[in-house]
């Protein structure tokens, strides 16, 4: 939806289907004698928001971790920004790691640092900025993700679940990366915050040309900000493309996912509303 | 990242125009430029502060991120405060959204309480005194809780977790045997070597055997074992309980109506109490063996002579003095380790602090206990 050229007064939009930013080919990942990815293929295009869905325990987080290089792979190749990740030397790899931001499923904030220090950590380590500017940028990021300034000096153990998510997002966005990985960013947020979150991701994608790889179970996010959706089942991507393609698919799991009790209610409502008007979903009642 | 490595460094170019000044921004206004970006942001203000009207032209900005947008907005705000009219020109639509999102807002710095060195020093001193007392109080109350749960377990043996106890005995006792044997053989050997070397001056080197026997059995065996176990198992217990506390696993136990003392701590402390005397016995034997080998090889005392000299030098109570102390040492190590583990706060740093404090405190307490026992045994003439 958001990649339509009618947004933002005809601004030049980052056009998908051009530049491939992540390309995963025949990926095999396993633990012990259990194989989780069985020859998985996936492309992520520059400037798009890719929603990644799949049943719980199907390996969405494992795939994210494999792309990030946190889980050893058993086969296949992963290319990021056009470079083969396994062929990179340590220096190139560090340069690569500064171009992405990651929001882990459980936040993974540094427990010994305050929220503000958590956000400043990547700035402090990789950029040379004055403390004053770092403070301002950290507070700005906090405000963008919807956290008040009273959260800035709290430690992660003093935050609520949703606040952890937001603080972790602020940290993932600290360096304004080109690519962000979000593992279930809206789980644990109330619907209003989740909608604001979607809006923020949408804005950043349009203004910064951000590419977003988002694992989510939130059907609202899929409808409102994802340009494409990929579905994972049985260790493979069983379908990918615009949401409409997936909605029309005959795959039993996809049918159950989108046309089941919960999904069905939403998709019916969305498809109707989509014809008459379209705005970013969160603002429509 | 160095500025030289930047392809298009951010730049401010000044042109005087009819109505005021025109600042053209160019290059990548992104965080990649780090301090260069910050300097250029400051230059916007420096270049424009003496004029009445400023036009900021963004047409040549090739990239803009939130940091760049923030700096531009802050400069605009600063100039506006000096009554300088600022106009942005040639703003691309996507930049204008970004500039809107990052509009200037004042972040008040967190209020810091006033800091007075003398007051801080005194309050720290008072705090640590109160903490020490509180710690002691907590220790006693924890001991009470532990004893109460032991009595409960003794009256309800079916509630006791034997599997867990056996697992702890394996971890604490069985797996420590190699390192305990190794250090005690070495220490026994060193005591023997020093004894022979020093006592030779008086022609009394055969007393070395008494020295080894009494020193090892009464003191060294149990002390070395306790210190080793405090470092090895006490730290493990603290870390284990501490990380369970951090991840709310202890809370989960509590809300299930289970007592962490009964479920987690009793098996560990009992495991220690059972393991430590056995390890002490093994340590005694290892140290005597080390002493015997060195006496033979260095002092020419044959094993047979060593054995008969040892038999004359020690009695059962020499050995018992060491063994009796072991379970008390175990109790102290176990209680300190558990207490410190449960006192862990939310952060990884606090876990590290608790583990350190647990090991330091238990080694200290082991030595203090040993001293108390020495006084006690001397006064009852045992
Ligand atoms: N370190 C590991 N060792 C062994 N198995 C693992 C490991 N990490 C994940 N797994 C297994 O891999 C599978 C996929 O896990 P993953 O965390 O990717 O699920 P997910 O799709 O993210 O689920 P959810 O939606 O619940 O987060 C699971 O069956 C899990 O048990
Ligand atoms: Mg997951």
Describe, in plain words, how this protein is organized in 3D.
The complex is a heterodimer of chains A (285) and B (382). Chain A has 285 residues and is α/β, with parallel strands linked by helices. Chain A has a domain of 157 residues: P-loop containing nucleotide triphosphate hydrolases (Rossmann fold). Chain A has ten helices and ten strands. Chain A has a six-stranded mixed sheet, with helices on both faces. Chain A has a four-stranded antiparallel sheet with strand order 2-1-4-5, with helices on one face. In chain A, helix 4 crosses helix 5 and helix 6 runs parallel beside helix 7. In chain B, strands 1-2-3-4 form a four-stranded mixed sheet, with helices on one face. Chain B has two domains: 99 residues, 2-Layer Sandwich (Transcription Regulator spoIIAA); 238 residues, no CATH class. With 382 residues, chain B is of the alpha/beta class. In chain B, helix 7 packs antiparallel against helix 9 and helix 7 packs antiparallel against helix 12. Chain B is elongated. The structure holds adenosine-5'-triphosphate (ATP) and magnesium ion (MG).
